[in-house]
Amino acid sequence: MTATVDTLRGTTPPEPGGRPAGRAVTVRVGRVSARFRWRSVVVPVVALVVVVLLAAVSLGRGDYPLGVADVLRTLAGAGEVSQRFVVLELRAPRTLVGVLVGLAFGLAGALFQTFARNPLASPDVLGITQGASVGAVAAIVLSGGSAGALLGGLGVPLAALLGALVAGALLFALAWRAGLDGFRLVLVGIALWTSGNALTDYLLTRAQIYDAAAAYVWITGSLNARTWDQAAQLGISLLVLVPLALAAGRVLGVLQFGDDTARGLGVRLASAQAAVVVVAVLLVAAAVAAAGPIAFVALIVPQIAVRLTGGWRPPLLASGLLGAALVTVADLLTRTVLPEALPVGILTAAIGAPYLLWLLVRGRRTTA
Amino acid sequence: MTTSTSEAPVHLPAPPAPPVRLAAEDLRLAYDDRVVVDGLDLALTDGSFTAIVGPNGCGKSTLLRALGRLLRPAAGRVLLDGRSIARTPTRDVARVLGLLPQTPVAPAGLTVADLVARGRHPHQSWLRQWSREDEAVVAEALTWTDMADLGDRPVDELSGGQRQRAWISMALAQETDLILLDEPTTYLDLSHQIDVLELVARLHTERGRTVVVVLHDLNLAARYAQRLVAMRDGALVASGTPHEVLTEQLLADVFDLEARVVPDPVAGTPMVVPVRRLHR
C-alpha cells in the first residue's frame, strides 16, 4: 500500500477539482498535522471577542454604571477601589458564571446532538436538566421534613448535581442496548423529561409558598447573586471537562456516520459513545448546579454554530463560545431592557421554545 | 501426472497457494436467541474476489457483518491473517479490512471530499490529523474513482450511482488489503449496477484488493467474481468457481428455482435463465 503513496508523492498537488476541501487550511509542524475549515477558526475567535465585550458591558451595568473602558481597566488591575469592589466583588461572579454556564451548555449540546445524529438531542429534551430540577426542588421543598433532611443538608447545587447524574445514569441504562441508538436515546430522554417535570410539579404542590417561590426561580435558571465560590467550582470542573470534550472531537466526526461505518473505520463504538455521553452529562450537571437549568441553550446553540461555520456537524469550540455569548446577552437583556429583573432562563426559554417548534415542524416536512 | 501431457505443462511446480487472509471457523451467528448462521467454515485467500449469493434471509449479510467484525459470533471464530478478529483491536482491523455497509449513512451536508477523507481515520491520531500522505491518498482515491470533479458536492445531492462511487472511494482511501461490500448495487438501475461492479472489479485487478461482496444478481455475480459462495438457511451449500457453483441442480436446491444455465454470450460465464419457481 505504501508503494501507491510513494509513487504519488511526486504528482501532488492534485488537479484543482480533486483538491479535498479546498477552502480548508492545513497546518503541519513535524509529525503534527491538522486541517481546519477557515470558518471554523473565524467563528470561535469572533465569538470569543463578542463574549469579552458583552461581559465588559454587562459588568458595567447596574446601580453604579461604568463604561466598557473603565471595566476593562479595572479587570486589568487598575481602577479605583470602589470600582474594583463593584466590578470584581459584586458583578464579576455573576458574569463569569453566566459565561461558563453558557460554555458548558453549548458544548454539551454539541456533544449530544452530534453523537445522537439528531438536532433534538439536547440535555433539555433528554431529561438531564429536569433531573437536576427534581434534585434542587426536592432539596428546597423537603428540607423541613425528615426525608428531605439529607437532601437539604446537601444544599441545592449538590442536590441538582445528584439529580442530573441520576437522570444521566437512567438515560444510559434505559437507552443502552448493545450500544446507543440516537433515536432510542431521544425517545427515552423525552420520557425522562416528562417524568422529571411531573415529579417537580408534585413536589411544588406539596411546598410551602415561600419554598415554592424559591424553587420556581431556581428551576427557570437564574444568575442572581452568584458567588466567587460558585464560579470557582464551575471553573475547576470545566478545566477538566472542556479538554475532554474537545479531545472527543476527532471521534465524533466518525460517530456522525452510521454505527457500521464508524466501526469499520476503527472506532470502538460502545466505549466512544459512553465516553461522549458521560462527558456531556457531567458538563450539564456542573452548569445546572451553578445556575439552574437555563433552558434551551444547549438545544439552540449547536445548530446556530453549525450554520455559522458551514460544516456538517455542530462544531465544539464554536458551540461552547456561542453558548457563552447567548447566556451573557440574555443576562444583560434581563437586567437592562426588560422591566423587572427576570431570571435569565425565562428569556432563553422564550427564544428556545419557538425554535423547538420550528425544528419539529421542519423535521416532519423533511421526513414526509 | 503422466497421463496429462496434452494438458498443462507437467514439469512446472504448482504455484504456491496464496495465503488465507480471512477465515470463518465453525461459525455460529445469532441475533439474541435467533440463530442465523450455524457451523459455517470459509476461507478467503489473498487477492481473491468472492461473491456471496443466496436467497433473502439466508444469512449472507449476517455472515459479511461477522467477517467484518461488526457482529460478534455466538460460537466459533473469524480469523484475520490467522488471528482471531474479535481479539484484534478495532483500529488494527480497520487498517487491514474496510467495509461498505448496505445503505451507508452520511451526515447531511457532508461533501464527497470530506467523506473520502474520513477513510483516513484509522491511519490518523489526535496529533496527526491530516498528513501529506492522507492528502495524497484521498486525492488519488477521488481521481481513481472519477469523483475528483464532484469533491465539493454534498453526498446527499448525488445520484445513487455517484454516491456508491463516493463510498467506494472512501474504502479505497482507507488503504485496506481487504474490502467487504454488502449489496453495493441495491437500488441502482442496471447500467449503474454494471458501473459499480466494474469499479469493484478494478479494485481487485488494478489495486490488488481482496474483495468479498454480497450480491443478489446471480448473473452479475458470476460475471465479476472469481469465486461464488452459495448459502441457504444459514449454511454454506456450495463454493467454487461460477461454473462449478451455478448449476441447474444448485439453483433448484438453493433458490427453489427451475432454470436453465447457459453461457453468457458476452463473458462466457454461466448465465441463469429462470423457468419457474419450484414449490416444495
UniProtKB/TrEMBL annotation, chain A:
Residues 1-22 are annotated as: Disordered. Gene3D superfamilies: ABC transporter involved in vitamin B12 uptake, BtuC. The keyword Cell membrane applies. GO terms for molecular function: transmembrane transporter activity. InterPro entries: ABC_BtuC-like, ABC_transptr_permease_BtuC. It is a multi-pass membrane protein. One of its GO terms (cellular component) is plasma membrane. Pfam families: FecCD. The chain crosses the membrane at residues 41-60, 96-116, 128-150, 156-176, 234-255, 275-300, 342-361. It is found in: Cell membrane. One of its GO terms (biological process) is siderophore-iron import into cell. Keywords: Cell membrane, Membrane, Transmembrane, Transmembrane helix, Transport. Its main location: membrane. Signal peptide: none annotated. It comes from the Bacteria. Belongs to the binding-protein-dependent transport system permease family. FecCD subfamily. This is Iron complex transport system permease protein. The lineage of its organism: Bacteria, Bacillati, Actinomycetota, Actinomycetes, Geodermatophilales.
UniProtKB/TrEMBL annotation, chain B:
GO terms for cellular component: plasma membrane. Its main location: membrane. It is found in: Cell membrane. InterPro entries: AAA+_ATPase, ABC_transporter-like_ATP-bd, ABC_transporter-like_CS, P-loop_NTPase, Siderophore_ABC-ATPase. Residues 22-258 form the ABC transporter domain. Keywords: ATP-binding, Cell membrane, Ion transport, Iron, Iron transport, Membrane, Nucleotide-binding, Transport. It holds the Pfam family ABC_tran. GO terms for molecular function: ATP binding; ATP hydrolysis activity. It is a peripheral membrane protein. The keyword Acyltransferase does not apply. This is Iron complex transport system ATP-binding protein.
